[in-house]
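Q: How do we represent a protein-ligand complex in a form that can be generated token by token?
A: Start from the inputs.
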Amino acid sequence: MATDPGLATDPRPTLAVWKFASCDGCQLTLLDCEDELLGLTERVRIDHFLEMTPVEGAGGERARPDGRGPYDLSLVEGSITTAEDAERIQHIRRVSRYLVTIGACATAGGIQALRNFAEVDEFLAAVYAQPEYISTLETSTPISAHVPVDFELRGCPIDRRQLLEVITAHLAGRKPRIPSHSVCFECKRRGTTCITVAHGTPCLGPVTHAGCGAICPAYGRGCYGCFGPTSRPNLRSMVAQLRHDGMSERDIQRVFRTFNAASPEYAPVPDLVAEEQDSPRDTTEARPERPA
Ligand code: SF4
Ligand code: SF4
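Then emit the structure tokens for the protein with iron/sulfur cluster bound:
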């Protein structure tokens, strides 16, 4: 196998990007860093990134060592849904000095973790003409359920500025400065009037991790939590508030089962919804008038 002789003496740290069950959106965020990408490649050597690097060179030779590592930084997208994935992540952990999971799939099982609340065989029978050829696990689990993870970057997809901060922090040998506060802080920062207080719109902002810049409330729409849970979400109050804002028991369950369905932080939600059902909050409490 021919390899670039320059690689052996290249002093740049090496970066690898890996994919498991996912839509590729988070990997593509790296390619979306159009203005910064060239500067980034001066600082790191991208050694494994199948979305970007041709595995085969023009002459048929391999352009880069393929997946063997070692790598200084691995970015891992996607959740574990097959037995092969569960083995492959062990290899990736072994060859990675620093492993960062990117996106809701990798940090919280992704939308594919909806299978965790149903019979996977029923899904297979509904989707595939010959489900007997499909080999899959019964659950979709985050990477941290299988190997130690050094940092988790949330979002569906992740935010490019936060991704650049994680990579830059790694290069500088410091911890990434990714705030763990909620979307509510971002609303305050951009001067958005709280849509729950002003309009009674159900919004998961109080329990959702910052990172998007509070896009949805800025356009009058409630946050549906695509950046996943904050580090210490007050779910009891959130469930009561959603109820107060008119959401049914079923809808509250469902709003927490979107992109971050397998988040352990959301596990208490069914019990809290049942409690709230037994002792509903006083909904005669005055709510501000909606502006005309
Ligand atoms: S977290 Fe969202 S954007 Fe990222 S890979 Fe999963 S589904 Fe795609
Ligand atoms: S759903 Fe919430 S976290 Fe996702 S973009 Fe909208 S405001 Fe941001």
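Residues 22-23, 25-26, 77, 103-105, 110, 156-157, 259 surround iron/sulfur cluster (ligand 1) (CB under 6 Å). The chain has twelve helices and five strands.
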